[in-house]
From TrEMBL:
Pfam families named in the record: Aldedh (PF00171)
Keyword Oxidoreductase included in the entry's annotation: yes
Annotated protein name in UniProt: methylmalonate-semialdehyde dehydrogenase (CoA acylating)
EC number annotated for this UniProt entry: 1.2.1.27
Provenance organism: Streptomyces reniochalinae
Ranges where the Aldehyde dehydrogenase domain occurs: 17-479
Keywords, in A-Z order: NAD, Oxidoreductase
PROSITE patterns referenced in this protein's UniProt entry, alphabetically: ALDEHYDE_DEHYDR_CYS
Stretches of the chain forming a coiled coil according to its record: none
Keyword Cell membrane in record: no
Origin organism lineage: Bacteria, Bacillati, Actinomycetota, Actinomycetes, Kitasatosporales
Amino acid sequence: MKTLGHWIGNKPHESASGTVGPVWNPATGAQHTQVALASVDEVDAAVAAAKAAYREWSQTSLARRTAFLFRYRALLDAHRDEIAALITAEHGKVHADALGEVARGMEIVELACGIPEKLKGELSTEVSTRVDVSSIRQPVGVVAGISPFNFPAMVPMWMFPLALACGNTFVLKPSEKDPSAAYRLAELAAEAGLPEGVLNVVNGDKVAVDRLLSHPDVAAVSFVGSTPIARHVQAEATAAGKRVQALGGAKNHMLVLPDADLDHAADNAVSAAYGSAGERCMAVSVVVAVGAAGDALVARIAERARALRIGPGTDPASEMGPLITREHRDKVASYVTGAAAQGAEVVVDGTGPVLEGHPECADGFFLGVSLLDKVTPGMAAYDDEIFGPVLSVVRAETYDEALALINSSKWGNGTAVFTRDGGAARRFQLEVEAGMVGVNVPIPVPVGYHSFGGWKQSLFGDLHVYGNDGVQFYTRGKVITTRWPDPEDSGGVNLGFPSN
Ligand code: NAD
């Protein structure tokens, strides 16, 4: 079986920690790889490599940094299929979806190719007699990135391309559940000519994460994962004096008003709820149906949900693959089996057998799709982030009732409104408490040149990832005040506070 170690200084680094974790092929239930779990010393070695590379990389010209990024983009383009296959083999999502993930990650590499435009400073001349002031942005140093299992290539690409473009060096700690795609991204960066130590990958679990959070040579931490760990990361890393952006979990509501095109709304609800087996932080997990929209919408969603084809991600006929682990699959199923006892109506029950054909997948971590109606706050299916193919429908009488429900959520990642009424959509955009809003768009993941981030317990920190916020996060400001005195006029001694 393949053993995956670390990638430090542009070379494979075999782990000596003595601890490994299993990486499964979720479609077959067989172990795919074993991944090294780093010791503190191994994390320190990766940080030391990044620190040693920092001075030279931060002083490398913008022309050279962008030349690397353009070569990297070309290599990623050439290896799209291979990276997507690695994602499918360890995460389980279908190949077309994995290709979409790679493309969305590459958007940030493309943004990073234009970094000179983003790093232009500001200059004010003659702010006082013969005095000029300029503001510039400089890299922060060694940046650590910690990523979740659900986007094993895209989320790392939200982080390191922009961080490197800004002149930082990087240590990435990918999810130990599906680490191979991130490792391959680092190998390709070396192939594209990235100098040694600029991008390092250390595989591991809590031991590695906690060392990165306390390491004195790590200046900034980008984290994406669940809310409890995001909160931990923010608390520990800020206590250690680092800047932090920690993106957490979600429970995304899709509001459907009675005037919406219900076929369009049902298509979008099904795509956004069950795509990637519901393991997306921007998945729609709650539909809030207002008034007369309710019954007709539930019927339409149920019809579409029952028709979905579930199977291994390698089969082009599959629309939805397995879940990440057996334990997670069983936990997700428990929300469906427990829903009726809590008062919900189980309209589609996905807990029975789902696979047709594919005997090689008999032990895979598959689960069918479920639709729960008449869900209310207080039920576990509503209160928890399930992170699986379970869609809950909550009924509301009015727009105001629906909005109040959405705004009472402890999360505020994405949300969407489906309506033909521009005025209602405009009110919703302004009144809803979430970081990303879709109008007739169910998964409003911003394009690379806008930033991604939620509100409330979906993000701890101030700055969102990528886009202009990403550039701000990976740089720090410096303001330079310059005077070239007239040799004839030194000005003399003046103990007063400088003013204009
Ligand atoms: P997770 O929080 O379990 O793991 C994320 C990372 O944290 C991994 O690298 C993991 O090794 C590390 N980690 C796990 N437990 C830790 C601990 N006790 N101490 C220190 N580090 C620890 O998340 P996951 O299950 O991999 O991913 C799914 C979660 O991520 C969901 O909650 C989803 O909503 C969220 N997510 C959020 C976004 C977003 O943009 N807001 C995007 C993707 C995923």
